[in-house]
Recover the amino acids of this structure.
């Protein structure tokens, strides 16, 4: 199933689940930045919520808001019994420490799964795992390579693949091109979360049975591009756009439902 078909089918299931709930889950999205990417992400999340019958409210604050004032608003949301879950849309303006904000969100309301004590996983790796499992991708004893080691994508992705008993290798900016080629050649599952347009090209050799997941979002005047060149000769390659971004959005709603239950 393509990602679009999968999302459509899952949305129907979630819609039915929400319709059967005695109380609709309440989500709050906190937004400070108003750059094109943040606006598009927030718009997408509000659209998904509306489509699924989830109550979502946008709480917009000025981009010059102080860290102290934002932390005060987060404390209010933590206490608000009407709010099941909330997210603070990242990235945040420079005057605010993102790590402090991630730790300020109560773990039981942390639908983004960013807090170390959160019972939920971050949405991007969670959305990827859900899709790969749905597609019947095998994990046990398979060679998985994750390129990128950020706290919100690369590291939790590696942890989740390890939990499924993959042999996991994590590569990063200090990995040489020769080593990268060596690891990729034997990989069964590759997740690229770097943010460099077409870092991975057909120059690299892959198993024809390999599964390539492209997390990267790189914008230019022609639109969005992934970290992997399109049309790789492998069994499965997720597209950009219309790939991991959609899986991430879906996982946010699934995380909210896990809290609301
Ligand atoms: P990040 O925090 O900037 O981390 C990027 C990682 O890539 C770092 O670990 C860095 O290594 C590594 N890296 C940089 N250059 C490299 C190179 N030449 N070769 C190998 N590794 C390299 O980014 P992120 O938040 O994880 O996001 C990564 C990409 O995914 C971005 O394009 C972002 O927009 C996108 N993203 C998409 C979604 C979605 O829903 N589709 C969600 C989240 C992120 P070091 O640690 O050594 O610096």
């Amino acid at each position: 199933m393509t990602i679009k078909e999968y999302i459509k089918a899952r949305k129907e299931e979630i819609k039915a689940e929400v319709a059967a709930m005695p109380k609709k889950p309440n989500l709050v999205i906190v937004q400070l930045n108003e750059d094109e990417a943040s606006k598009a992400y927030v718009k997408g999340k509000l659209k998904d919520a509306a489509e699924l019958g989830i109550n979502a409210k946008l709480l917009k604050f000025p981009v010059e808001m102080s860290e102290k004032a934002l932390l005060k608003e987060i404390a209010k949301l933590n206490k608000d019994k009407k709010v099941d879950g909330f997210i603070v849309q990242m990235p945040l303006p420079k005057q605010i420490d993102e790590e402090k904000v991630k730790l300020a969100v109560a773990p039981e309301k942390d639908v983004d799964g960013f807090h170390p004590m959160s019972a939920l996983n971050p949405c991007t790796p969670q959305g990827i795992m859900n899709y790969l499992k749905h597609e019947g991708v095998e994990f046990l004893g398979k060679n998985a390579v994750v390129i990128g080691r950020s706290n919100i994508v690369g590291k939790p992705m590696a942890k989740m693949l390890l939990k499924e008993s993959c042999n996991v290798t994590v590569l990063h900016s200090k990995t040489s091109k020769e080593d990268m080629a060596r690891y990729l050649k034997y990989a069964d599952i590759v997740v690229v979360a770097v943010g460099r347009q077409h870092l991975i090209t057909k120059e690299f050799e892959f198993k024809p049975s390999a599964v390539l997941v492209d997390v990267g979002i790189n914008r230019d005047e022609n639109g969005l591009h992934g970290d992997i060149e399109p049309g790789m000769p492998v069994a499965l390659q997720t597209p950009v756009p219309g790939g991991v971004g959609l899986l991430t959005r879906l996982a946010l709603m699934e995380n909210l439902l896990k809290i609301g239950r």
In short: The domain at 21-108 is CATH 3.40.50.10860 (Rossmann fold). The chain has a mean pLDDT of 97. The chain is about 40% helix and 15% strand.
